[in-house]
Write a structure and sequence with these properties.
The complex is a heterodimer of chains A (about 100) and B (about 325).
Chain A (H helix, E strand, L loop, with lengths): L7 E7 L6 E8 L3 H12 L7 E6 L11 H10 L18
Chain B lengths: L1 H4 L4 H13 L12 H20 L1 H5 L8 H26 L5 H10 L15 H22 L5 H29 L3 H20 L11 H6 L7 H19 L9 E3 L4 E3 L5 H11 L3 H14 L1 H18 L1
The chains are: A alpha+beta (about 100), B mainly alpha (about 325).
Chain lengths: ~100, ~325
């Protein structure tokens, strides 16, 4: 018989103070404290970080890959959002 | 946008998928993928995860009898790494829509395979050295190209694993070096371990390319990036000179250096033995699965208690 499902948690690590937490993987655990303990054992055996987050995977809302073109297309359609769109005369120097 | 024009056209989807893989885009969990791609990856990643987990057993055999406290600490860290590697890989397989519980069940019922190398026994301390040097060395050869696998979660897990694995190979070589520079008895022990682990290590790369049924499709989908025979040759070329440094003899009367190609050529692998061990009739198959089963059974009350406690706290909070 298959065992009852153990909840899934996503693990985020801050590599060092000053950097954002970054997703590194996931663990299964019954509650947040055990998830944190498991994340520490599985993902920080070699000094990978100074801070850990665990988030229930079910709490994450993700965009649909099928929407990629609609959601992110405007970025490429608006080149004037990038500084390289503008020509600064040489005489003006760095800007 | 093409999805709207051809919402159910799998041929179009497949063509777009293959074009995407061909230009080295990574595939992520929620992306459309062919069923065969998903199935192949679940099979390959879970086999790999099971191998890491079962791989703890032959080495665990020596944890209490490591010759020094230093060796014991190192071996503990290595075995803990194998558990971690199994967990990274299970997590990667789960992103394809199979649960951890199903994966564990497939291992315990024998529905899923693990690397046949772990069905050989660790008879002496030198075997721990030979495993690190040869088995982990062969594993690294296999795993480095997998860091560029087309499936993102698998590739990311492999990058972490490869970083950690190189300590495993070095610690094994160091054990072999210490023994081979030791007493006559220690040298004999190292030679005996090499004699027993050499051929099974070559088998780790799997059948010859001419006998690999799924190789073409896996290569096209960039799941497999280098062929079995090519990887095996790389391992042989890297390892033979190392054995010479150790002053140990590779147990192969036909081993010779081919000057024209610059490769070491070995005698033929005993494929009958390979098939026998995979089919379940190796020296330790039954013992390994029985050990996994009892570890799983002995841990059941812990999993049950943890879930019950979490449920109780949820109710109290409500």
């Amino acid at each position: 018989m298959t065992d009852p499902m153990m909840p899934l948690w996503e693990v985020f690590i801050r590599a060092k103070a000053g950097l954002a937490h970054r997703h590194v993987g996931s663990v299964h655990a019954a509650d947040p404290e055990m998830a944190l303990q498991a994340a520490r054992d599985v993902y920080t055996r070699r000094g990978e970080g100074v801070s850990l987050w665990v988030v229930p995977s079910a709490s994450i809302t993700a965009s649909d890959p099928a929407d990629e073109a609609d959601l992110f297309e405007p970025v490429t359609a608006k080149p004037y959002r990038h500084p390289t769109f503008y020509k600064v005369p040489k005489e003006v120097g760095d800007m | 946008m093409d999805d709207i024009a051809h919402p159910f056209d799998d041929a179009t989807r497949l063509a777009r998928f293959e074009a995407r893989v061909a230009r080295e885009d990574k595939v992520e969990p929620n992306d459309w993928m062919p069923d065969a791609y998903r199935r192949t990856l679940i099979r390959q990643i879970s086999q790999h995860a099971h191998s890491e987990v079962v791989g703890m057993l032959p080495e665990g055999n020596w944890l209490t009898r490591a010759p020094t406290l230093k060796r014991k600490q190192i071996l503990l860290a290595k075995v803990q790494d194998e558990a971690g590697h199994g967990l990274y890989l299970y997590a990667a397989a789960e992103t394809l829509g199979i649960s951890r519980e199903e994966l564990v069940e497939q291992l315990l019922t024998g529905a899923a395979k693990y690397s046949s190398i772990f069905n050989y026994p660790t008879l002496t301390w030198a075997d721990v050295g030979a495993i690190g040097w040869l088995v982990d060395g062969a594993a690294i050869m296999n795993q480095i190209p997998l860091c560029r696998c087309s499936y993102g979660p698998y590739a990311r897990a492999m990058i972490r694993i490869c970083k950690e694995e190189s300590f495993h190979q070095r610690q094994g070589f160091e054990i072999m070096l210490t023994l081979s520079r030791g007493t006559a008895e220690q040298q004999a022990m190292a030679q005996d371990a090499l004699d027993r682990w050499w051929w099974p290590s070559l088998m780790m790369f799997g059948p010859h390319d001419s006998d690999s049924p799924h190789a073409d499709q896996s290569t096209r989908w960039k799941i497999k990036r280098v062929s079995n025979d090519e990887l095996r040759q790389r391992f042989i070329d890297a390892t033979v000179p190392q054995s010479k440094y150790l002053g140990l003899r590779i147990p192969d009367a036909k081993l010779r250096f081919d000057k024209k190609t610059g490769h070491w050529r070995t005698g033929e692998i005993d494929w009958a033995e390979f098939r026998r061990v995979i089919a379940g009739d190796g020296p330790c198959n039954r013992e390994r699965l029985a050990d996994r089963q009892s570890a799983h059974d002995d841990g059941a009350w812990v999993r049950d208690a943890a879930l019950a406690y979490a449920e109780k706290r949820r109710k109290q909070a409500a």
